[in-house]
Design brief:
Elements lengths: L4 H4 L26 H16 L4 E3 L9 E6 L2 E13 L3 E8 L2 E11 L1 E7 L5 E7 H14 L8
Antiparallel strand pairs: 1-2, 2-3, 3-6, 4-5, 6-7
Bound molecules: zinc ion.
């Protein structure tokens, strides 16, 4: 694969923390999946990895668009307009952290398994089932898109 200069200058984005009102606002759907979006997602991935996070929502870097990055057992999922269409009745509890709420871990109840609809960076639609930690991260990140932070759950 040949990279353009633009691919190589993706910058570390600034992570917004609690008190920033962008974290309480609802993100809007992405209309166009284009090179600008792909470049932004690459910066989100860099920012998440450099911050040693396992998930990141666009709100957390000040962008009110429905985009999340999720670490899925070694893979990194880039989900555009993600939507949970089914939650399992089975719930589990685990302590969660959040890059926007440093050094805070809170026990949160979440569905064990979810079914999610989203588009990838090529615009291809996906409909997948996730469970365990990946399902938890997706639920946490979609909460961010809806202006919900874990301290209010
Ligand atoms: Zn978070």
């Amino acid at each position: 694969m040949i990279y353009t200069i633009l691919d190589m200058v993706s910058d570390m984005l600034t992570i917004r923390t609690l008190g920033d009102k962008v974290l309480t606002q609802k993100a809007k759907r992405v209309a166009n999946i284009d090179d600008t979006l792909r470049t932004f997602c690459a910066s989100m991935v860099d920012t998440m990895l450099q911050s040693e996070g396992i998930g990141l929502a666009a709100n957390q870097v000040g962008v009110l668009k429905r985009i999340i990055i999720v670490s899925d057992e070694g893979n990194i999922l880039k989900m555009i307009n993600p939507e949970i269409v089914e939650f399992s009745e089975n719930k589990c509890m685990m302590e969660e952290g959040c890059l926007s709420i440093p050094e805070t871990y809170l026990p949160i109840h979440r569905a064990e398994t979810i079914k999610v609809k989203y588009r990838d960076l090529k615009g291809k639609p996906h409909f997948e089932t996730y469970s365990g930690l990946t399902a938890r991260i997706i639920q946490h990140e979609i909460d961010h898109l809806d202006g919900i932070t874990m301290d209010t759950l």
